[in-house]
């Protein structure tokens, strides 16, 4: 694990950002674009992953960082759940579903590893990303 100077350097934040971009791309057109409540919830859940990683990092302490990483991990699970439903409703192809789930599962693993690392007590001034 390497040291990071800002949340944008974190591999897990970069992956979460890519998920947000893909969710917005997928919700731009078609039937999913017209299911406003579902589309909005999917977008909010995806954005929450990325935003909570950033917010936790900027809080400056490991305890708060871990709290926000747990929230981000929960949001990744929420997004995964919504992706399953989107596929079942015919909003996503199997290929789109599989690609999204692969990314979200990887993010969840990275966040879990990062949380375990922080629980072991690194210095509060050097948060790092888990691979």
Task: Report what the structure shows.
With 131 residues, the chain is mainly alpha-helical. The protein has a single domain (7-119), classed as de novo design (two linked rop proteins) (Up-down Bundle). Helices cover 75% and strands 0% of the residues. The chain has five helices and no strands. The longest helix has 27 residues, at 62-88. The relative contact order is 0.19.
What keyword list fits this structure?
single chain; about 130 residues; mainly alpha; de novo design (two linked rop proteins)
Summary, kept brief:
The chain has helices at residues 11-26, 30-34, 36-59, 62-88, 94-119. By secondary structure, the protein is an all-alpha fold. The protein has a single domain, classed as 23S rRNA-intervening sequence (de novo design (two linked rop proteins)).
User: Are there runs of 5+ residues with pLDDT below 50, and where?
Assistant: 126-131
SSE-based structural type = mainly alpha
**CATH architecture heading:** Up-down Bundle
Find the CATH superfamily: 23S rRNA-intervening sequence
Largest sheet, strands/sense/barrel: none
Give the class-level CATH name: Mainly Alpha
CATH topology: de novo design (two linked rop proteins)
Distance between the termini: 7 Å
The outline comes out as: elongated
- Cα radius of gyration in angstroms: 15 Å
Q: H/E element string?
A: HHHHH
* Subunit organisation of the chains: single chain
Q: Give the helix level as a range of percent.
A: over 70%
Average pLDDT level: 91
What is the number of beta strands?
0
| Proportion of residues in β-strands | under 5%
Count structural domains: 1
């Amino acid at each position: 694990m390497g040291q990071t100077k800002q949340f944008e350097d974190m591999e897990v934040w970069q992956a979460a950002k890519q998920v947000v971009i893909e969710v917005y791309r997928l919700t731009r057109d078609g039937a999913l674009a017209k299911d406003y409540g579902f589309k909005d919830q999917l977008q909010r859940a995806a954005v929450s992953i990325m935003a909570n990683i950033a917010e936790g990092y900027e809080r400056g302490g490991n305890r708060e960082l871990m709290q926000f990483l747990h929230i981000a991990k929960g949001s990744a699970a929420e997004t995964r759940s919504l992706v399953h439903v989107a596929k079942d409703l015919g909003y996503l192809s199997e290929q789109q579903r599989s690609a999204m789930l692969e990314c979200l599962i990887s993010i969840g693993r990275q966040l879990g590893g990062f949380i375990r690392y922080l629980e072991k007590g690194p210095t509060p001034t050097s948060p790092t990303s888990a691979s």
